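Treating backbone geometry as a discrete language has practical consequences that deserve illustration. Part of our work consisted of pairing the sequence of a single chain with a tokenised description of its backbone. We regard such an encoding as a compact summary of how the chain folds. The amino acid sequence and the backbone structure tokens for this protein are reproduced below.
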Amino acid sequence: MTDYIKGSGSGRALFKELRLRYLKRLEAACETFNLASERAQSGEKPGDLFVLRDLVHRLAGSGTTYGFPDVSEAAFAAEDSLDAAISGHRDARDLAMTLTQLRDAVDSAVQLYRQESQLDKLRKERSSASAPKAAAPLGQEEARIVLVDDDPSVSDLLWAAFSRFGYETEVLRDGIAAMASIKHRRPDLIILDRGLPVMSGTSVLLELQQDTELSKIPVIVLSAKAPSAWFSEQNVRYIQKPFMPDVVVGEATALLKARQDQMSAEVAL
């Protein structure tokens, strides 16, 4: 399994705990996909296609992030099949293969994690000492980040990743809440899921760009879809789901430094 998180001590323990919670969600999802697959194989409707697609979509975006790329790959295939079924271009029987493959990928991830957890438990040395928190990049210890994603499996992991470096990170679930928070207390960086409920990430970004001051805030957009033209903005970065947490932290650090350098240059003038 990929060593998907850098670090040790208390920070690493937190990531393991979040990953364990994710595996519990996978176990519940496995039962859902097993039932849906059995229904599809018998020619029945596998359940509410829209609810099923939402679950599959979340796994497509989060599997690799938690170190399970096979789950993401199978989920993307199942998502395409469900889109075809919803549009009437594919019947229930045609869904059976992709749903079965997704169920098997999820089940394999759960079993693999259990095996590795047992080995890790045997190797682990009992110690009450905690490793010190990783140092934030010089000059950025007090940076404030607004993280907007409606999928807790993604937002929890990113919150933990940024917390390791001492960043103040506020987690929000929809675009309207995000805009209210941003206007009330301007952050140093925004991390924005493109597919938000109530008010989409695209709408949030467009509203930010229409404001002279808010448009200066650097933004990282997370999405499983290909980037659009508005990603050409200088202070907007695009990261495709699924992603590794350290990639997001690295991009955020670079944007914060660039913004800090720009502000220093403006003061010098």
